[in-house]
Structure formats: C-alpha cells, structure tokens
Amino acid sequence: DSTTTLLNWSGTHAVDVPTSNYYEPESIEEVEMIVRRCHRTGQGLRPLGSALSPNGIGFSRRGMMKLDNLDEVLEIDPIRKTV
Fold first, then answer.
1. Which tens digits make up the pLDDT trace of 18-27?
2. pTM surpassing 0.85?
3. HEC profile for 44-67?
4. What is the C-alpha separation between 61 and 46, in angstroms, rounded?
5. 29-69 pLDDT per residue, tens
6. Would the CA dihedral through 53, 75, 71, 37 be positive or negative?
7. Quick one: which of 49, 64, 62 has its CA closest to 9?
C-alpha cells in the first residue's frame, strides 16, 4: 500500500498516511462527500492547514484532509466587515 508523507513546517515531525486515507479536495462539495464517507465507515479524519504546529499532534495515520485548494474568497461584506 502506498503512503503520503506529511511534514510539519519545521520538518521535525512527519506522518506516513496511507494514500487511500489522504485527501486534497478542491470544492466544498468534495469536503462534504469525504466527511460523509468517513463518518459512514468510521474512518478518522483530521484537517491539515499550514502544519505550523511545532509537534506532530495534528497528524493522524487514520485520515488527513489537506485544505490548500480551498483558499478562494467566496464573499466579502464591506458593511459587516466579514469575509
């Protein structure tokens, strides 16, 4: 079984996640589908942001979802000053 290696920002901690448990969704719909599937099958899933933690506490071999592709600004409300 192939794996994907994830590193924290400093390169001091790593985890090898089975490729079948590693996700890089490109839309909200994909995120919803992945979360539903993991819930239905009992598979653990953790979001992966910038991996800035100085340790590996946020990593999990059970399942990781990298969110880099979800960086689009969907709406800006200048009156409420929200994004």
1. 999 999 999 9
2. no
3. CCEEECCCCCCCCCCCCCCCEEEC
4. 9
5. 999 999 999 999 999 999 988 877 777 888 999 999 999 89
6. positive
7. 49
